[in-house]
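4.2 Preliminary Data

To establish feasibility before requesting continued support, the project team ran the inverse folding procedure on a target of 160 residues. The structure was first converted into the token representation described in Section 3, and no sequence information of any kind was made available to the design step. The complete token record follows.
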């Protein structure tokens, strides 16, 4: 008798659980135990850029070899933050045709030797160039978490 063992990573099992219906959730909970699927807060899963890569399946940072040397840090940081935002938003993308949908982004204080997170904001009534469309979040809590957890990457986007 030939048996094949299937190995499923926890990241993939959690993603499948989030993406399925009630019956699929029950099946996964019966296979792996309900405890595996408790505490599904994305902020508990995404603590590092590597966590965001695992969550999204995106490739690691490109080498940006065709970018001028003095711009590479910015492009690396921009790529990293785009992947992190995608992971934290869990599939949500802003609907730019919906003025009633809040789209949150972090706001930073930039003074002489200080770069720090100030607060999270949203806008639905006027144009603002505070961050790129990929770098907004579905909730104020996610925006604030991202700013505080990944401050060095934001610094490289804003100051490099």
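Position-by-position output of the design step:
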């Amino acid at each position: 008798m030939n048996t094949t063992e299937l190995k499923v990573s926890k990241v993939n099992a959690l993603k499948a659980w989030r993406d399925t219906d009630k019956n699929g959730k029950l099946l996964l909970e019966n296979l792996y135990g309900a405890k595996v699927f408790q505490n599904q807060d994305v902020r508990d899963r995404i603590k590092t850029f590597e966590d965001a890569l695992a969550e999204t399946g995106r490739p690691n940072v490109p080498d940006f070899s065709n970018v001028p040397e003095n711009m590479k840090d910015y492009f690396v940081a921009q790529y990293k933050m785009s992947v992190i935002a995608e992971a934290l938003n869990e599939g949500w993308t802003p609907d730019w045709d919906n003025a009633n949908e809040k789209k949150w982004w972090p706001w930073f204080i930039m003074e002489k030797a200080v770069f720090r997170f100030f607060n999270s904001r949203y806008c639905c009534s006027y144009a603002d160039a505070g961050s790129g469309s990929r770098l907004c979040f579905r909730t104020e809590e996610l925006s604030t978490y991202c700013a505080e957890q990944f401050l060095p990457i934001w610094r490289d986007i804003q100051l490099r």
